[in-house]
Each structure stands twice: as C-alpha cells, then as structure tokens.
C-alpha cells in the first residue's frame, strides 16, 4: 500500500507539472514565469490546499535531483564573455558615450551588497531574523532565470543597458552562491573547515583544463554522435563527481552542481547540447522540484503569524530599495524610466532564495515559517518585477537596431551582396587582405573596403570582425575559412557563415552550428530548379514576387494565431522559422517573439508588414 501511495503522489506531481504550462497558455497568463506557476500549483495540492501529496523516497530523490540540476543550469546560464571589456562604446540617443559596462556593473553590485548588509542589520534589530549573513544573501541575490528571458523578450540582450543589467545579475549569482557556501560551512556541523572548499574549487580547475585539452580532439567528436553521446556522459559524470565531492568537504551539494555548470559554460559547448540539457532539466526534474516547493509551503500557518505577515511587504520593499539606489548611478547616461525599470528587473529573485531558505531550515538556522515566508516573497517578486519592467522601460530605448554584418574576403560575390543588402536594416562592413602590388583590383574600387595586413584572428579581432551579428567568411582558402569560422563561434558570434566547397569539411562545420555556403552546390541547386521549375528565377529575382524574411518583435502579436492576425495586406506567409525548426503556417499557427517569417508579396505591403511586426513596445 505504501508503494502504491508513493507512486500515486509521484503521478499527481508529474500530471500537475505537465498541465501547468498548458493552463498558463489557455488562460493567457504570459506575465507569470512557469516555475512560479508550478509553485502555486504545488500550493493547491500540498499542505496549503488539498494535501494529497505525501513525501517518500521517489519524490524526495527526484526533487533533490531537480534542485541539483537547477543549480547546474544556473551555472550554465552564466555567459563569461559578458565580462569582456573589448566591446566598443556606443553613442547613446542623448548623445553621451555609454559607460564601461563591466566597471559600472561591479559598482552597482557593490552598492547592492552594502545596502543589503545595512537592511539586514535593520531586520535583525527589529527581531524578524537572527542571522544577518543569511538575510544579506536573500536581499542581494538576483534571479538570472527571470532576468535573461525578460531581456531576450524585450530584444535588449545586445544593448548597452541590457548588458549592464545582465552583468549585475551574473555577478550577483556568482558572489551570492559562493557566500552561501561559506554561510553553510560556518553555520553547519563542519564549521571552521572552510579551507576544504578550496579542494572543491581546485578540483573544478583541474576538470576545466582536462576539458580544454580533450574538447577539440577528433575522437571526442566521433564519440559525440549516435548511441555513445560522450559529451552528455561527461557532463553528468562531472555533475555527480562534484556534487559528491561537495558533500564530502562539508559544503552543500548545490555548490558542486553550480561549479559544474560554470565549467560547462566556460568550455563553450555546442548550443544543441545546451538545448538538450535544458530540455531534460526543465522538462522533467526541475518542475518536480518547484511543485514540491509549493507542496511543502504551509500558507495558513504562515499567514496566522503576524510577524511573518508583516515581514512580507517589508522584505519586498527591502529588495527594491537595495537595487534602486545603486542603480541610480545609471542616471548619468540613461533616463529615469530606464533606470527605474532596471531596478525593478534586478529586484527579481527566485532559485537562490529557495536554495538558501531550504538549506537554512535544514541546518536549523531559521524556522519552517521563516523559510516559507522567504520563498513566498521570492515568488511574488518574480510575478511583479517583469510586469513593472515592461511597463516602465521606454520603447525608444529598444529602438530599431541595425544588424551588423561583416564580410571577410572581397570577391565578386561578397562585393555584390554588400551593395544589395538594405542599408536601413544592415550595417555592412567588408574586410579584405591588402595587396602589395599596385593596381590591385580593389585599389580603384567604388566599394568601401577595410584593408588589413592579413586574415589572422588577432587582426580580425582588432578590427571588430568578431563583434558582428553575422560574419560571412569568403576568402579563397577554405581551410582558412574553416579556422576563422570556428574561432568566431568560440567568441560567441551569433551567426557564422563560411564558404566551404569540401563536403567533409562542410559536415564538420555544420555540426559546430556554423552555416556553410558552397558556390558549386548553390549553382547546381539553381540550375536544377530552373530545369524543373522554370518560373523559379522570377520568384527569386523579381522585387514583386521575391521572398523576404521578417523577424517578429512586436509583443502585441505574441502568441496570436495567424487566423486572428489583423494584417490583411497583399502578403502570403510561406514559412516560419523558429530556432532551427521550420514550420508550415496554418490558421492555428501562433506567432512568437523572434520568429522569422518568410513572406512573399508586393514590396509596399512587405515593408508595411515589416514595420508592423518589428515595432517593439
């Protein structure tokens, strides 16, 4: 009977995890993060509601694994390239030069931490909590899991203010996780043995150098396909080894998982592997953890305590104050609405607060009621802050940003393309190797070409080639094209296109998420199309029948079906590309932010549709 009961609880939790996003979609509750909805659903079926879930080995094990995997993915989310100070400073709409992103972000977090320390002292004086260090961590932490999706949805990830917000969140995530480990080491049974944490970090460094040494080996690439999937095996082994070592040195298992995540992020794995890990984590283990967080919360007991009830608004206010005053430094460069919106977004907190609350409760630093209050405040902050950010952030700051395209190698093809691309949508830069001979074919060229001494990585990096949104490499040497394409991907260039004629080399690059262009294959495909479909040339070359790509950025049309779409111009949507998926559009097909629509129709209507879909609130 006990076994049947345990399986029934697991089934209920899994069903709740499955139906939660469907319910959010059905009732169009898009403002609410799915993880917050999962906690609320857990409240309904747990101690605060129906009380139909009972703890057992199955649920406890899967919930713990979900917690570990959540901390691992939090480490993976950290983009260490954001710490690079090589970005060129842009001129802001008000005419001022934007600040040094890294320096300003460090100053803002330092201010957040100092204010959090002072506010924590006030909470201790008021008798709400006894441990000042724990409260400082709670107030100063920021949720990357809320910040990153919100910035992506607003199309702000590559803007100066977006990068500053992201950097502050990344620094907060790193610092608070390390301090949480120190807090556990000091407060737990193994207090005073903090030096053992150095063993864990040293092991992480060793694993990093091992990963760097073997990552690019040919045999690793061969073993990463089919039923072997050596890369995935290595990641899960890394997680388990570091989690076990973390517990062995008296730290929390989540520290080992977090370090494993940061190591994976530093090693720049294939994005397809990251998507697989996200799919496994957020599709199975992590929802179980968040539902169980809600199950264990006893709201009635919490709300019956006047101190806890008073603490909720005071702590929410403290979270905002700790972010608002340090962010005021940005007023030197940005308007007040941008600064206020940034402060609200940085107020969001979730995963690390839940981690700190649960750990502190387990080691008897705080009561179950206090733990529940801290988690409830985190949930409320995650609902409120993205809404306030979207309402306050000025739409003119999002602006219509041109896509930066760098073409490496001047030839008949790249020269023609550079002139054909729309100047209103693209900033095009053409880089070519300087010829020693006078009278070179570029000497009297009407094209604007940046001449460089050579195609070395260092030279191209100095000239800003790797800062492009799209990098098209088309020199006469396909081996060089391949080397530069890999180097660009390692520097996180979003799209890299390389001119490659060799099928084997093309296949190897495609596996590294590099797009390949072949003159031979393109010509063959066009000739075949001309023979089989004579009118194909007109479709590809005529302005009235040509295919156009439009990126959907207008939030007004997010989650709207094509049947409901009000735009009735003379345009047909031929295809929708979503990530790597190609979707044949139907009436029930929904438009999502960052969808790429392939359309055909009269140029006038295509331009009107482009303006409509790319208008960002």
From TrEMBL:
The chain crosses the membrane at residues 6-24, 29-50, 62-82, 102-126, 132-152, 164-186, 192-211, 280-303, 309-330, 339-360, 366-389. Signal peptide: none annotated. It is found in: Membrane. It comes from the Bacteria. InterPro entries: Cation/H_exchanger_TM, Na+/solute_symporter_sf, NAD(P)-bd_dom_sf, RCK_C, RCK_C_sf, RCK_N. It holds the Pfam family Na_H_Exchanger. The keyword Ion transport applies. It is a multi-pass membrane protein. Keywords: Antiport, Ion transport, Membrane, Transmembrane, Transmembrane helix, Transport. Residues 534-615 form the RCK C-terminal domain. Belongs to the monovalent cation:proton antiporter 2 (CPA2) transporter (TC 2.A.37) family. This is Na(+)/H(+) antiporter YjbQ. The lineage of its organism: Bacteria, Bacillati, Bacillota, Bacilli, Bacillales.
